[in-house]
Amino acid sequence: MFIGMMISVVLVMVAGLFAIGLAGNAIWRAVMPPSGLPRNAGCGSCGYELTTLAAGRCSECGADLLKAGVTTRRNAVRLAGSLPAALTGWTLLVMGATLVVLYTVSIVTLTSSTRSMMNSYSASYTYRPALTGAGGGASGSTPSFRVQLDLDVEGSRAGRPTSGELMLGLSANASVATFRFDDVSTDDWVLTDDAGAMVATGTVLASDDVLAAFRAVGLDPDTDASLHGFADRIEELAAEALQNPMRFSTSLMIVATQLPAGTPRLDQVSGTSGFGAGATPFGPMNPSDAIVPAVTLGVAGGIWVAGSVFIVRRRARLIEGPRPTPSV
Ligand SMILES: [Zn+2]
Known about the structure:
With 328 residues, this protein is an alpha+beta fold. The chain contains eight helices and nine strands. The strands form two sheets. The chain has a seven-stranded antiparallel sheet. Strands 1-2 form a two-stranded antiparallel sheet.
């Protein structure tokens, strides 16, 4: 797909260069004086400037003017280039340039507005512990618990949310201990037990806090050393979810095969996420969004009119010829 896009871009650029060449050629031929442009009507055979057609023959070479014809400025200019072709070429050039400007402007504004757009975002993921290279979870040494992460935040997509909450629940032995971040713009948390009673509070969730939560659900880090490693993972999970929740699901992907054997990790087993209703990156149409395209179209229209007038008048002067110098 990427190669296809590259080929498309190259083809469009080559076609554009050909179109520019054709249009430029048509304009050039229409407005530049052709070589050998006679000052007055000339003999169609030798080009000698005729002063009279009365004889029907060229006074220089004697050619029959009914057969050789008479070259005039008008037909010399018209043979060299076409006015409709020049105006069509000019129109295509202006339209092409306008298209490039409008396209570039819309890409830039769309990118910046998407980045700064306020969004609401919610996610709900479940993780299970796993030890890399330890028999794919079938090993009896992997502790049995689940991590439930729920977040519901508002903010820009660029980083830390401005408001919202995050809940991180550890469940084992049919009970659950939950870290609640009621305001995700801070790192303040409250740990509640299965009955909802407060067990501890703190700022910035650390691995040791997670160990306390393990104990609250009946898992003992003193007898299962792997719980220390899983506590580290949960600390990282919370930090990542607080720091960049809207990119959370993609930024947390771990290539398990690159971890040393026996590394505690958290595997996502289920989850959903999504942006809130009405939070599309495009948002409502803003009247100021129309200013740049309108100005671009206005400038392009002005340039097109000026260029067209120039081409038409320039040809009229070519055909008319140099003004006779006043005799002194
Ligand atoms: Zn002649």
